[in-house]
Design a protein that fits this description.
Blueprint (H helix, E strand, L loop, with lengths): L6 H4 L15 H15 L23 E6 L4 E5 L5 E2 L5 H12 L1 H7 L13 H5 L10 H10 L5 H16 L7 H8 L3 H12 L7 H12 L2 E2 L1 H12 L17 H11 L5 H7 L4 E3 L4 E6 L3 E6 L10 H14 L9
Antiparallel strand pairs: 1-2, 1-7, 3-4, 5-6, 6-7
Bound molecules: glutamic acid.
Length: about 325
């Protein structure tokens, strides 16, 4: 792992002395990751998502846990090299691109930042909410976010998004085409969402094209280790800790993390804030990234989901690590 190429993350003036960052010593973090992996490995509750037929075929036993710190160190256990589809974990990163291109106010005004309390793909939420699209982490808001990305055409827009995610990961990421084809053939609900947004004037490019680019972005492959680097870039104020590249303006990061805290865990976001207290985003591919601002990202990946769409083993693993470290953004409570 290359050292951090930027002094901003690890160096000096703003960081507390090393001892105050306890207990995130190397051996402790590796031990915690190992423990979290071992503790929840035997859990077999839940099931792969199957409304995207290809997701039902992913081996359910896969399970990986990863931490990447803001100084670029990685601590991993289990299936951390398996590329799964990013699915809704893509959503905050596209929201970040909209913020970067158009500003935080445009995101708030044209999409919204309120949690919906509805399932992520709820069509009825659009009719009931004043802002229609809710926030960029539910399907309606995420499709609207794609529509707001500035690019000359749909292909260029997809390429821009793919490259943008790659900047967060510090590596080139590519689409898993079988997943894309499978979802594109079955995503009538998302097409209905886009059509309804158009009715209310809350989508800003062609609805059919916007759903297609959104479906492609959801099919981008990422492994747990890469996803942890993406999260660590947010933890690090928008600078990738491996490449040293500033990806996102630091002013956007707290706002994005606020949306993730309020809406990142589907309609279990309240429960997640209560139990783990971390900004996070989950996806039906089984990946979850949680961000500890200024410290690290914690990632879990395992395909079996609960009713809300959250990976059961990944949720438990991150919650365990966050609890042991006492890193809730609301305080450690001790
Ligand atoms: N592509 C998926 C959909 O639109 C993403 C869902 C998710 O991960 O929450 O249904």
């Amino acid at each position: 792992m290359p050292p951090a190429a930027t002094p901003s993350a690890s160096a000096g003036a703003v960081d507390p002395p090393a001892t105050a960052v306890a207990p995130a010593r190397e051996t402790d973090l590796q031990k915690l990751v190992n423990e979290a992996h071992l503790k929840f490995r035997a859990l077999t509750e839940g099931a792969n998502a199957d409304y995207i037929p290809e997701l039902a075929r992913i081996p359910s036993e896969l399970y990986g846990v990863a931490i990447v710190t803001v100084d670029g160190r990685a601590y991993v256990a289990g299936d951390v090299e398996y590329a799964f589809s990013i699915q809704s974990v893509s959503k905050p990163f596209t929201a970040a691109l909209v913020m970067q291109q158009r500003g935080a106010e445009a995101l708030q005004k044209q999409i919204g930042v309120e949690p919906t309390g509805f399932p992520f793909n709820a069509i009825e939420a659009i009719a009931l909410q004043p802002q229609r699209s809710g926030n960029p982490l539910v399907n309606a808001g995420a499709i609207a976010a794609v529509s707001m990305v500035e690019a000359p055409d749909a292909e260029a827009k997809y390429r821009l998004i793919e490259g943008w995610y790659g900047d967060f990961a510090g590596q080139k990421l590519t689409m898993l085409s079988e997943i894309y084809k499978s979802e594109a053939a079955t995503n009538r609900g998302n097409r209905a969402i886009a059509a309804l947004l158009a009715k209310y004037g809350r989508i800003y490019a062609d609805p059919v094209e916007s759903v297609d680019v959104y479906t492609r972005q959801c099919a981008i492959g990422v492994n747990a280790r890469q996803l942890a680097v993406m999260g660590a870039t947010l933890a690090n104020g928008g600078v990738n800790p491996l490449t040293g590249k500033r990806v996102l303006d630091s002013t956007h990061v707290p706002k994005l993390l606020a949306i993730m805290t309020m809406a990142g865990f589907y309609d279990e976001s309240g429960l997640w804030a209560y139990r783990a207290g971390l900004p996070a985003k989950t996806g039906v591919g089984g990946g979850i990234v949680a961000v500890v601002p200024g410290r690290m990202a914690i990632v879990g990946f395992s395909p079996r989901l609960n009713q809300a769409g959250n990976s059961i083993r990944a949720t438990r693993a991150i919650e365990y690590i966050a609890g042991e470290l006492g890193v809730s953004v609301f305080g450690a409570g001790r």
